[in-house]
Amino acid sequence: MLANVDGAVGKYVPAFMFSLEVAGAPENNDLLIAELWAAGSSGITELDAGKLRAFFDDEADPAALAERFGAMSWRREEERDWVAVSRINWEPLLVGARFLLVPEWRVDPAPEGRFRIVVNPGLAFGTGIHETTQLCIEALETYAHPGVKVLDVGTGSGILAQVATLLGASPVWACDVDPVAAGIARGKAAASVFIGSVDAVRPGSADVIAANISPEAIELLAPDLLRSLACGGTALLSGFEWQEVPAVRAELERRGGLLRETRYKGDWALLAVSKPG
To answer: Angle at which helices 179-188 and 159-166 pack, to 10 degrees?
Structure first.
């Protein structure tokens, strides 16, 4: 049984609307937000310590949703436009020196000299809000020059492939093992998007590889990430916290990678690793 915020336990009889408090992990919240939207949430707000509050109408099943998302509590909510309330929390965001990320319901123009990218926080990982996505965008500004061949591994929403294309990289490829994410990326990024992972990529194909995934996935894919790089190419790898850097770096170096630089934003890190040649 799930206890509501008043401490009562029992079957919930919907009145107007209810909300669930979900204990997310900051590194996974983009994906969790996407799953909550897909489950029919009417709005989502971010709380302290990485927690989320998701609002649902009275036709939803709170017990099933609580079990699915591991909710800590639920509470009844007054009738309000919770979509509008949740959207208040999504402001346009300046990232790096050349980008403005704008939620799809905003009309804010990009400042002079910046590219405007429209994001939908409910679709897939990679809205640009998370520090790891910002780290990757900033690193692409450094490494993705016109004519450079870029591969985005685990593309999610396709935002990194879109960034690389706007920076003049060509060709740009992207892949994701999730067919839904691949479909979203295919519709937003001017890139060749395929369902799958870097193990399907021809050796030496990319000058730059971006992979904003988990540290476990990076360590597992390290041989293929380096194999797919052209000699002298650089892999921009993020999705992990600063304390996980030594283990990720050690595995990449064990596979023949050469660390070029490490970047940090808050608790999060990015490794730029090259393939000697």
So the answer is: 30
Pick one of 3.40.50.150, 3.40.50.10890, 3.40.50.300, 1.10.760.10 as the CATH number of 93-274. Answer: 3.40.50.150
Q: Which listed CATH number (3.40.50.150, 3.30.70.1170, 3.30.300.30, 3.40.50.1950) goes with 17-87?
A: 3.30.70.1170
What φ, ψ does residue 68 adopt, rounded to 5°? -65, -40
Q: Give pLDDT tens digits for 123-160.
A: 434 555 788 999 999 999 999 999 999 999 998 888 99
Q: Are 229 and 209 in contact (CB under 8 A)?
A: yes
Taking only the tens place, the pLDDT of each residue in 75-90 is: 877 665 545 555 666 7
CA separation for the pair 86, 63 (Å, rounded): 23
